[in-house]
Amino acid sequence: MNVDAGTMAPTEHGECFVLDDGGEVDLDLGNYERYLNITLTRESNITTGKIYQHVIAKERRGDYLGKTVQVVPHLTDAVQDWIERVARIPVDDTKECPDICIIELGGTVGDIESAPFIEAMRQLKRRAGKGNFAQIHVSLVPVIAGEQKTKPTQQAIRDVGRAGLVPDLIACRCDVPLETSTIEKIAMFCQVEPEQVLAVHNVHTTYHVPLLLEKQGILKTLGNILNLDAVTKSQSLVELGQRTWKEWRNLTSQQERLYETVTIALVGKYVNLHDSYLSTIKALEHSAMRCGQKLNLLWIDASDLEEETREKRPVDFHKAWHCICTAQGILVPGGFGERGIEGMIAAAKYARENKRPYLGICLGMQIAVVEFARNICGLPHAASEEVRANAVDKVVIYMPEIDKDKLGGTMRLGLRPTIFQEGSEWSRLRKMYGESSQINERHRHRYEVNPAYVERLSEKGFEFIGKDDKGERMEIIELKDHPWFVGVQFHPEYLSRVLQPSKPYLGFVAAAAGCLEKVTADCLRDYGVHGVDGVTNGLNGVRI
Ligand code: GLN
After folding, report:
1. DSSP 305-323
2. According to the model, what pLDDT value does residue 453 have?
3. Which position among 137, 291, 493, 523 bears the catalytic label?
4. What is the pLDDT of residue 393?
5. Ligand 1 centroid distance, CA of 143 (Å)
6. Is the pLDDT of residue 536 over 60?
7. SS3 assignment, position 362
8. Which secondary-structure segment (H or E) carries 172?
9. pTM of the model
10. Best substitution site from 15, 338, 363, 387 to test ligand 1's pocket, by max atoms within 8 Å of Cβ?
11. Domains of the chain
């Protein structure tokens, strides 16, 4: 019933994904943006809370003209209208309506929460008409004592069938490849042909899944169901598709042959649930692939690095520090609250002093500011207001315009410009962005670097090379005298794509792997000799 994912604990639900328009949404939308290389909006996500809010607002306006407002038809109609409206929104800058709208109906068949949505889908199938609606049912095939069990799938298909939905394809998730007899059994009991059963077993990485599906003829099967031959495709789109597919295949096959590893330490507080950092991990993976390296990620609970832990849990303390010392790069990702802050500061200090590549994302940049203020600017009590509200030197403060009383949707959110400052031509990060003077990245924060301390910090070599368009907000810091020490107030991981890794991550991983020079030269070449100004989204300005 949450209206959006912004107020949900990442430790329970995984990260909150942020869109260009500032929508705070489920992490699945990140997967779709990354895989499809498209830009979604907050409209692309419906929750029970959001759709009820929408219907209730209409009721309050009097739109229902005295009628009794009910789940069926009012809520179910609202779901369908919403989907139809969003499905017609032109894709990115093309001004063209998409040919296909993918709807993911989350949750599990039989959940009370999903019942109105299932009914809405049943009606939508009629509304769309024959040949315009394909239903793919995702089901788990567990293996018990070596035997592949089809009963859960049969039961689930029966349940949706009772609700009036009959799948066109059944995608079976399984640890191991599906046996022919399993496929036949599912086909037979679920009233489909064996070609309609897709075997989705565990593969090397998720990047191999499209190849696995293609091998099973998904394009042909889906094409037949949706009559895709009748859709006109421009020559340039077809070529783009072929090129992308070729690149994708190369990347994944190259990945299998990688033997060199790059070791990155991720110092955070939500490390028990890796999904809390999903986009961060993906951005690191994309970057490692581009550098021709296998990613070895070390998960470090920031509080394990703190002095207190040395006494209480010495084994954890030494283990964590061993990871820091052996990692080729140290990453402090975004986060909220107090726990683990001192551990993150210690990690940033280690990276700075030992010239180890460092990337600070949002909170990670604020951490770097506190560390530098304390240890270089002679402000031993420097702190962030988020952690110590009455600190003497608040080097990170609450942003003035942020509502202190309301938590939902009140942060500084979404795509915003960062201007590289004059004199920052030396910046390694700026080069990664093709020497651009402006970039746009997504934000999600309440606190910012205190402008009152900027001069003192810069005097000592803490360079604020990127600011917002008014020059008020600090967006990027970088140390000159260091192989790669970068902090960004934004979250570049949200715009990372498989074939176009996020630049701050790519530079960081390349520095850690010892190939920054080559990767920088490649980036500069991608942008054209001396860079392109006004890059739209940190992705070489390319939007597909
Ligand atoms: N807690 C910090 C802030 O609100 C950092 C947020 C983040 O890392 N996303 O500014």
Report:
1. GSHHHHHH-HHHHHHHHHH
2. 98
3. 493
4. 97
5. 42
6. no
7. coil
8. strand 169-174
9. 0.93
10. 363
11. 134-257 (3.40.50.300), 259-537 (3.40.50.880)
